[in-house]
Amino acid sequence: MTNLLMQGVGMTSLRTRERLIQRLRDQGVTNMKVLDVMLNTPRHIFLDEALAHRAYEDTALPIGHGQTISQPYIVARMTEILLGAAGNGKLTKVLEVGTGSGYQTSILAQLIPTVYSVERIKPLQDKARERFRQLGLRNIQLRHADGGFGWPEAGPYDGILSTAAPQAVPDDLLGQLAPGGVLIIPIGGREQQLNLIIRDSETDKFVTRQLEPVKFVPFLSGTSR
Fold first, then answer.
1. Residue 220 lies in a domain
2. DSSP state of 116
């Protein structure tokens, strides 16, 4: 995969990827670790061949089953918030709700020791698993399940990140946050807000901050094969 990435032609060229990273900088993303990982992660492998030429546009794109690969800015922003809110060195285990294409998962896995990811749509999970294998990412654990229940057996988590928007925060996810843990989740229907929720380690209360308007696919219950 490294050879594919470093060919320096067409959609995989360094210049194409650097233009995307500059757009992220222009939008306020400053974490150099996040920007470096995104520069060196081949987003085109997370898309079907027909859309691969658009991989380095700063836009969400369809991946089938009514789902999308998130806009690069949103991936960078959520990852940066997660790292910043938790503090350096405090993120050792993170839960992602909604594996989707696996792109956000791959970014997290290059920055955090262990990533658990839940996906309700089995064909998407199967494709993501193959992409992780291609990239040599071995610190990702996958489960086919309803994301609203999280992954309690592997918790508690230092961080939880949701790639779909429920109408309200699922209690199960709050319960799986470790003391001092951070949940980043979009909330709402037609109008959504990205929320940062921290489990205060002293009071054990949840402190919520609304960050910015976003647009995610809805958070659905159940599983699909």
1. no
2. E
